[in-house]
Amino acid sequence: MFLIAAILAVLTLFNFVAALQGYSSSLKEANKLFDQHLRQTAELIARLYAGHPIKPLDDESTLAYQVWRGQELLASFGIEQTRPITDFYPGFGHANFDGYRWRTLVYYDQNHRNWIITAERTDLRYRLAESVISHAILPILLSIPLAGLLIWLIISHGLKPLRMLSQQLKNKQADDLSPVVLPELKSELQQVSQSINALMSRLEVALNREKHFTADAAHELRTPISALKIQLHNLEEDISPDNEAFQQLRAGVDRIQHLVEQLLSLYRSTPEQLAHNFCRINLHQLAQDVIAELHTKFETKQQIAELAGQDCMIEGDPFALTTLLQNLLSNASKYTPPGGHILVTVSTDGYVVYLKVEDSGPGIAPEDYDKIFKRFQRLNNKPDGSTTPGCGLGLTIVRNIADLHHARIEIERSCFESGTAFIVIFTRTED
């Protein structure tokens, strides 16, 4: 309402001022025109009755006059020629003489049987008309840019809170659902701000409910799954190890246990869980510890896992970065065939630290690079077209942890004949 009222007020004010100025200018020009005609009429009357000779037409004279009785010229004014200006046909018309175009009027006086011809130069008439019109519209033309400038200033001032609201929403992180607070909001924007805050509040409640449900469900499932694994271990003594049904059952339990652990890791990789646990970490040493921890996994598939590079210090959460390395190395081991190679390299370039995990597996097609970070996404990249076992959460957890450390992830071909390289790029802290 403020913007509408302000714009209407500005337009009304400028139109009123422009109309007033135009009226004043037009009145002055009209008075000049009437005064000139009055002067010329007075001169005409004076000359007719004083018997003065004909005065030649000057450049500023707009009026010419002839009085005829039959073929006798009784009187004339403003013109030197002694022949009729135009034919004796009553009414308005046009005529050309003395090098000008004239507007004429022929009038017959029946009482005295005289023909009266009056004429006015059209160029001077148009000049006077243009002068009147220009004086009328000039104030309006001048007021347009001034009105536009004032309207722009008013709208800019009125939309400033909206721009502040837009900027605050733009600066919010994906996980920031805190209320929007802006001082001195107009009544219309207060309603918008309240609606946005109400929506964010509902989203926060829904997301927290989802996170806690997932974490609580995963936590509650750990105990029965652990008990089930113990029972399977006890049954193994009574069942042949080659029993296919038993092996499928054990593999299924392992997958469920892995899914539960990944769900818990996904919950623990949220900002509210990691916000206050950052410290200086030697990324090279951490990679060495995780490789040693997963040694049994590599040995089972006769894979060679190597570490290269140098000590590099970064700011991060130890548990989260350990989870990131575990997922990258577990994925590399999962997709690398028996006897394959896995290479971890930690390097630095100025204030940038690179963590690179390469494998000699089948590799990932470039068009699938964006898909692999989605939840529960698994690729059919085995030679037979089947899907590698897993829950599809590992790389989602990796991406979440990288985002929390303000790191980015790049994917490229590995240094081996085939395979994929995941590169996590951190900002280095000062030693």
General description of the model:
It is built from 9 helices and 12 strands. With 431 residues, the chain is α+β, with helices and mostly antiparallel strands. The protein has 3 domains: 2-131, Beta-Lactamase (2-Layer Sandwich), CATH 3.30.450; 172-268, Orthogonal Bundle (Helix Hairpins); 277-427, Heat Shock Protein 90 (2-Layer Sandwich). Helix 3 (187-236) runs antiparallel to helix 4 (244-268) and helix 8 (318-335) runs antiparallel to helix 9. The mean pLDDT is 75.
Quick take:
It contains nine helices and twelve strands. It has 431 residues and is α+β, with helices and mostly antiparallel strands. The strands form three sheets. It has a five-stranded antiparallel sheet.
